[in-house]
Amino acid sequence: MSVARAxxxxxIARVTARLASGHATLLGPGDDxxxxxxxxxxVVASTDVLVEGRxxxxxxxxxxxxxxxxxxxxxxxxxxxxxxPTALLVALCMPPELEAQWTExxxxxxxxxxxxxxxxxxxxxxxxxxxxxxxVTALGDLGGRAPVVRSGARAGxxxxxxxxxxxxxxxxxxxxxxxxxxxxxxxxxRRPEVPYGAGPQAARHGATAMIDVSDGLLADLGHVAAAxxxxxDLLGAAFEVPDQMxxxxxxxxxxxxxxxxxxxxxxxIVAAFPEDLPLPAGFxxxxxxxxxxGVTVDGRTYKGAAGWDHFR
Amino acid sequence: MSVARAxxxxxIARVTARLASGHATLLGPGDDxxxxxxxxxxVVASTDVLVEGRxxxxxxxxxxxxxxxxxxxxxxxxxxxxxxPTALLVALCMPPELEAQWTExxxxxxxxxxxxxxxxxxxxxxxxxxxxxxxVTALGDLGGRAPVVRSGARAGxxxxxxxxxxxxxxxxxxxxxxxxxxxxxxxxxRRPEVPYGAGPQAARHGATAMIDVSDGLLADLGHVAAAxxxxxDLLGAAFEVPDQMxxxxxxxxxxxxxxxxxxxxxxxIVAAFPEDLPLPAGFxxxxxxxxxxGVTVDGRTYKGAAGWDHFR
Lengths: 312, 312
Known about the structure:
The structure is a homodimer.
Chain A: H1 3-6, H2 8-16, E1 25-27, E2 34-37, E3 42-51, H3 63-79, E4 84-94, H4 100-115, E5 120-128, E6 133-141, E7 158-162, H5 167-176, H6 183-190, H7 198-204, E8 209-212, H8 217-228, E9 231-234, H9 243-252, H10 256-262, E10 269-273, E11 284-290, E12 294-297
Parallel strand pairs in A: 4-5, 9-12
Antiparallel strand pairs in A: 1-2, 3-6, 4-6, 7-10, 7-11, 8-10, 9-11
Helix pairs in contact in A: 2-4, 3-4, 5-6, 5-9, 5-10
């Protein structure tokens, strides 16, 4: 059955029937607005939009996968502030001929990814559109902590990473060349493995600045460096390319370091910490904050891909 | 300059430079997420999406107008819970050839409408897309009150309305027939005049159920009736058609009552109140909650347009 045939209210009923309620949900879907617990008197909020053909392709990933990815992109932003996600709202624009089942499976993916952090889908909107578009807003709770912003890094801090780099970008390249393996790369593109807990953990350990890697490590650390008015020098040795990624890069004729340093969508969490503190579990040292500007690798400018501009 | 030429980060900088910070904003645009005051430990959240050609046309309204409308649709949802809006997040999908200035003016409209209630735009996302799409999420604060949901109306309650009905629908019909006047109708379509304060006021006066009229009065009260398991009987005499609307309807050969009872987009606030309480200022009696089901006018089913389904 198409979404047009299901109708707006029929489709909303089908989708909301599949959504569990998270522990922060005081009032879920079905009214003019949702009500979500915000225990410390503040709420963290972030919006990300995915457009078909630009951020996802229906022939490259299932609806469930795309739901996972759409949720992950937003939940990672909440984690990168040092907060714990509480809720998602989803605005979904669909061609009228889209199968209603696709929408239900998308909701399953969104709900399952949210459930990984104890959050849930609390509301949304649906409309017909020529372009399949998924706009997600995530809310989160700081648990009494100060938000960890991009502008707090100081010369002398260490830079540390939680999570993977380059896997999703490698999977994207593999798919774009018409291949379906290596599975570890393709699956990483379809469903990023985000270290959500690392965000609040870094905040508790005194992180001075933090960001999630969505545009590519060099680009995102460039945002931190600019906002903090510092330079960041990365340790080239910290970016060993895994064998499977190296083999895939060789077969495709590309530089795998471009995936690792320039690829987005893994949603790793990168943070600066005062140098005298031990790093929290799950983080590894990848560089240092220095006086100056910009991001370098072993003191030099990296010449490969520097990240994504979503209009080019 | 096109948005493609401005680039994602250039465009974000241009737009955020135009946004003032509301009193609830603890951290505004520019980081992974915003942080918004949620003083009573809960946050109200709602999402609405506008798609070009379906919810707006660039030749019918300016970018500033469309910003006002997109904000109003969301802020009204917050007000209809009895809450005061605090913040907006905006996901904007644009054709690459769109003028960057259009985006800036849209932001001006969003910000100006939000400022009417003391709120501001705290974050968002931008992407290229073949279809111009504006997804807005609004947040709000209940000020310690219980949310006023759709399901609380009880037989014996009175039904009362704040704000206008039919003006936006009439303006839409006028524009769709190629006319630009009467101005009062066209302007109502372009920039709805939402009685935001009526929502929290109704909550303080003991409203038992509340909704904003976005799909049409009969359709939206139908949601209240269904959720509350009651019927609602409206007083036909309460819906006097203003002269300008009657004249326009006559000239266009349509029934103006269809606009009043079936038209959306004015975002009037309609609420049920216990019958023994005086109505709050700004509300007028339009009907009664009765035992039964569905919505009637003077005891009969109205045969005209019953509201919008966004897939048809």
